[in-house]
Write a structure and sequence with these properties.
The structure is a single chain. By secondary structure, the chain is an alpha+beta fold. It has 4 domains: 93 residues, Uridine Diphospho-n-acetylenolpyruvylglucosamine Reductase, domain 2 (2-Layer Sandwich), CATH 3.30.43.10; 119 residues, Uridine Diphospho-n-acetylenolpyruvylglucosamine Reductase, domain 3 (2-Layer Sandwich), CATH 3.30.465; 113 residues, Alpha-Beta Plaits (2-Layer Sandwich), CATH 3.30.70; 89 residues, Alpha-Beta Plaits (2-Layer Sandwich). The chain is 36% helix and 20% strand. It is built from 17 helices and 19 strands. Strands 12, 13, 14, 15, 16, 17, 18 and 19 form an 8-stranded antiparallel sheet that branches. A hairpin with a 4-residue loop joins strand 18 and strand 19.
């Protein structure tokens, strides 16, 4: 891009959002140019911070006319490079972080409307202030934003009970590439009037338009929660336990499987305390909730006692305080940080049918250990919905880069097993840049063709988050 065009574009952007909200010095937005794992590092013409949907629309229209790529970015917590610009320096980053209003909390309809830059934690707090629950829960909830959650169809630890973000969205407001605004902030639970337009933007990772607000489902705020940390022998036993607690407790809201390596490195690095007195091959962190104030702990204790007597589990501890519950969850949420402290890791965000999780783990573990002797499988995740983070940490003392150089080859092993089991190579993190090749290779050809046709129809100039997903 020549200097004359660049200066004209920047001046036009400043006119739309104000000079202080068009950052051109990369030192002022260096953090927005790199994703959390450091896998992608881009450049940008500017970071632009609109303060209203109409400003987003004007920016989009300007960039579309000038054929300038727009990379939407919320909290910059994504793990597949979907929020990172390319290396050309000729795209803009459109930050949604000034879109911060909770526009409405409707207690009759149990729906709230949040703008894209509201953090997940802020949305949860707004619901709680109205004695409601917004159940989406992620480790990055203090930083990730509603716009990003919607655009990536975020999952998290409560999918077993409430579904993905897609299941929590009743409507969206979005800006198309040419600046048109889709006013789809419906609060209706039933609206059978043709195509599900809102659904196009959920999980599209900003490639079809920019989500500026969403209407979100709320639920009754639970009056009781019971949380337990359990030691057991195998993923097969964890499945048995899942069936038992569902039968006895009904509303199981989280059921997290944690391998011994995952727990050991987290405790070793001082990120959490050991939850049980003795070591076990596998662990489960489970939580149930109820609208009845009393009796849930006793019900959970009864279920765990039956599981112990039946040989399904070996040990368990029920949280006796909010502090102990927080300690249990701190361990689960600190596993990724522990992996960083252990060196390089090759990560797989995969899913299979719930009943096939043991098969996935039993096949993939020896395969990667044979491929890289000494590699440490750090498997953990959402057993209740079949999503396992099958991560592999480098051998102790190994060369970091030499290990990372085997990323594609290890992916081939793990994703091949996932494919044979009928699973997905992207369960909740999205496609972004990291998995574009996998999408082209593994996606059903007719489905992929539909995706490309929708992209061509809504973004014919290819300016919406170019280089991502397709």
């Amino acid at each position: 891009m020549d200097a004359t065009k660049r200066d004209a574009i920047l001046a036009a952007l400043q006119k739309i959002v104000g000079p202080s909200h068009v950052l051109t010095d990369p030192t002022l937005f260096a953090g927005a140019l790199i994703e959390p794992r450091g896998l992608y590092h881009g450049r940008a013409l500017a970071l632009v911070r609109p303060g209203a949907t109409k400003e987003v629309a004007a920016v989009a229209a300007l960039c579309n006319e000038a054929r300038i790529g727009v990379t939407p970015q919320g909290g910059n917590t994504g793990l597949v490079g979907g929020q990172t610009p390319d290396a050309s320096g000729e795209e803009i980053i459109l930050s949604t972080q000034r879109l911060r209003r909770v526009r409405e909390v409707d207690l009759d309809g149990d729906v709230m409307i949040c703008e894209a830059g509201v953090t997940l934690a802020e949305a949860q707090a707004a619901a709680l202030a109205a004695d409601r629950l917004f159940p989406l829960s992620l480790a990055s909830e203090g930083s990730c934003t509603i716009g990003g959650n919607v655009s990536t169809n975020a999952g998290g630890v409560t999918v077993i009970a409430y579904g993905n973000t897609r299941d929590l969205v009743t409507g969206v407001e979005a800006v198309l590439a040419d600046g048109r605004i889709v006013n789809g902030l419906s609060k209706l639970r039933k609206d059978n009037t043709g195509y599900d337009v809102k659904g196009l933007f959920v999980g599209a990772e900003g490639t079809l338009g920019i989500v500026t607000a969403a209407s979100l489902r709320l639920f009754p705020n639970p009056r009781a929660r019971a949380t337990a940390f359990v030691g057991l022998k195998s993923p097969e036993d964890a499945l048995k336990l899942l069936r038992m607690v569902r039968e006895r407790l009904g509303h199981v809201t989280s059921f997290e499987l944690i391998g011994r390596n995952a727990l050991d490195i987290t405790v070793k690095n001082g990120l959490a305390r050991k939850p049980l007195a003795s070591a076990h091959a596998w662990y489960v962190l489970l939580e149930a909730s109820s609208q009845t104030p009393g009796g849930l702990d006793d019900a959970l204790a009864g279920a765990l006692e039956a599981a112990l007597e039946g040989g399904v589990i070996d040990d368990a501890s029920i949280a006796s305080s909010l502090e102990q519950r927080a300690e249990f969850w701190r361990l689960r949420e600190s596993i990724p940080e522990a992996q960083v402290k252990e060196g390089a890791s090759i990560k797989h965000d995969v899913s299979v049918e719930v009943g096939l999780v043991p098969a996935l783990i039993s096949e993939a573990t020896p395969a990667v250990e044979a491929f890289v002797p000494g590699a440490r499988v750090v498997a953990f995740g959402h057993l209740g919905d079949g999503n396992i983070h099958f991560n592999v940490s480098q051998p102790v003392g190994a060369d970091r880069q030499a290990f990372l150089d085997r990323w594609d080859a290890m992916n081939e092993i793990v994703h091949g097993i996932v494919a044979r089991l009928g699973g997905s190579y992207s369960a909740e993190h999205g496609v972004g840049q990291l998995k574009r090749g996998l999408l082209a290779r593994w996606k059903d050809p007719a489905s992929l063709a539909v995706m490309r046709e929708i992209k061509a129809a809504l973004d014919p100039n290819g300016v919406m988050n170019p280089g991502k997903v397709l």
